[in-house]
Amino acid sequence: MLNNNGYNGNSSLKRIGIDFSYSEEQVLELAKCADDPIYFIDNYCYIVTLDHGIQPFKLYDCQKRKIKLIHDNRKVILMEGRQQGKTTSAAAYILWYTLFQENKTVAVLANKASTAREIMARYQLMFEHLPDWMQQGIKTWNKGDIELENGSIVFTAATTAAGIRGKSVNLLYIDEAAIIPNTVADAFFTAVYPVISAGQTTKILITSTPLGYNHFWKFWNDAVNKNNDFVPMFIPYSEIPGRTEAWALEQKRQLGDLKYNQEVLCKFLGSSLTLINSDTIEYMSTCPTVYSKDGLDLYEYPVKAQLDEDTEELIGKPHSYVIVADTAKGVGGDYSAFVIMDVSSVPYKLVGKFRDNKIAPMLYPSVIYKVARDYNMAYVLIEVNSSEQVAHIMHNELEYENLIFVNRDTKTGQTVTGGFGGGKTQLGVQTDKRVKRIGCFTFKALVEEKKLLITDADTISEISTFIQVKDSYAADDGYHDDLVMPLVLFSWLTTNPYFKELNDVNIREAMYQARIKQIEEDVVPFGFAFNGTEEDYSVEDGDMWKPETPSGYLTSNL
Fold it and tell me: How many domains does the chain have?
């Protein structure tokens, strides 16, 4: 070691400005290490083990494949069980990355700053055990950040939107990404991810054990289905030496089924007692949006009839759409949300959704109106439990023709009707116990029998926490069901005789002939971010959004 030449009295570290004479063997070793991070880690990195203290870090075969994957790709997402060395492997690669390359900046992020510093501590342990001839001189060395003589920097932060704002980062490492709360993750990725991913050589590494259907699940699912640029890698416990079937059985006994499935088998799990069974949720998958802005996510453009330029006649059959909308107060709590359903054929498809918890009820109808017009004058069903304001604006002020009316009867309950008629007719549906019971039953059957396809990540996440609460279903504590409830209402809508007249598809007759009596009699059921004024988004303004597509189809002038 360097004895009196150490950094701040630490003889294990080399201070800057030290001249060193390298032997021929050391030069060859430096060249080998610089060329191959696996060789470097396997021969020069040390770790702390529970049984034997500080030991050389001898990579398992699966860890060598992991290091190679990180090295060869710009964006990597890794899923592993607990205590499989994912964090230590990442720290070792970061050490190689900063040691043998100049002027590189690495950000190490975790849900808490203290967790990120634990990763930094592993980096520092490995660094201090390097031979002095391999080290870089130290300019800064503390728990939160390090700067080396070659200009490379490593710093830690919590995963917040402000965590690395304004900093140029060459490698972004996010550890245990699934633990980061969704609200924090959304703000972080919105503010930071585009900046990092825009570079030509920047690298992003995300590692985690799964924890529900959250943002990590979405990144992982999109990577597996090649809907993003990340390269996925899953390392099962069986690839770690010593982790046999007997070991797994012991873990299952100690952890219980739930934690074992999640932390050892790496299964994405929702809440227990969900309306939709867990196997169905597990096989749900997302798809990329064709348009996404200000709370509106579209997965398919509306299918319209095409104009034959020679005959000037319309050819082809336009698709039919239904929009089901739920309204909140717009004060940052629950969301105003609607789903866009393609009902042209079975299976039905969710082709778009809107969700915003700050849009005022006065502005919300203009959003529904414009989307509904673009989607072939979609039929619109509005939930009116808290207020009929949105429905009245749609009908009386915007004069939208394809609103779905509902008739209330004390004996038969609510039924869809073609317009104002006898009895108590209203401009939408009230989610009472009967409607919710039938809607939940039908929603469960539609989804589990693959008669309703859902590829939106936010919706799938809500489905995974939509659970039985006493004699009904609702969001688990701390979660939302603002996207699930429009789907429950849509499912209820499909059981109404009038739905066949809307679209000539009688799903009730096709699927539930044997179940109708049970459904009717069983009493136990199993955004746009508007910153302007209302005038900014008035109906006469023309296009509310302009997707970057050649057709530019999204206009209000159908």
Answer: 3
